[in-house]
Records
---
Amino acid sequence: MSQYRCCSEQEWEPVADLGHTAGVDFDLGRCKNCGTYLMAVFYVSSITYNVLSDQQAKRFLRMQGSDTLKKALKRWLDS
């Protein structure tokens, strides 16, 4: 994971609940102000919002409901 802010006025808008893996919950959203995809990562009592490329976000959306989604989320988290 790299960048946490997309713009100075970052505001969360939910897109999809991607479920959880490795004790972490993943929600995909977009910034209402600039349209950038964001991944909300919930772990224990903390939350971070991470900037995703359009390609990454669309890949996760295509994987929804598949067995490979959890593996892909874990790889993304570990990167």
---
Amino acid sequence: MSWIIEEYIRRIPYIMEEPDIEDEVYNNAILILKCIEDLSNQGLLSDTEKDVLAAVMEGYNYTEVSKILHVDRQTVSLIFDKVTDRIAYVMGGEFTDASFLDRIQTLGDSISEKDVSQLFNRRGIIRDE
């Protein structure tokens, strides 16, 4: 799952409260919304996937979404993970987990090499040493 995309989608209602075209976070949120719209227009998102995204963007948690959509909570989680991965794949670059993990390494002493390695291992990413 793309941590970056996931967090943006969860925060979109708050980001949109105070639009600022000079703000990178606002512009990234707009790009993500555009990507979701494009995937939807191309028929690359199912109705259920769109419903899950919409509900999460409205601030509902997985349990609440599962009740609204009458599906298992685990199904909601799986759908959200797959959709955020798809969005990250389409957007590429800085929106991927690998990019996020690469940036973590630049934090210096604030995070240990062991912690960075554990994050990479959990994501199944093989690092070039």
---
Amino acid sequence: MNYQLVIQLSGDDLDALVRLEEAVVERLGDLGDVDGHDIGRGEMNIFIFTDNPRRAFDRIRPTLTGAFAAAFRQVEADSYVVLFPPGLKSFDVL
């Protein structure tokens, strides 16, 4: 798969992150593979490999509530393209 899609939330609730990750796996279907998560410094991330990051995001969007950000990059690239929220200028994974 050519892209990494990252869903980023603030917080440090591992149980909530795992529940969300499970919902994302179920909703994503054949559009990609969830590659795990990380948590630290007040940030939680779910990593997804996919060939169609925009379509994958559209499919999992209903599982995401509250404040979050979503961005993707080509697997070999360093910089991300922001999908959500509109107007977010930069995106980094700590």
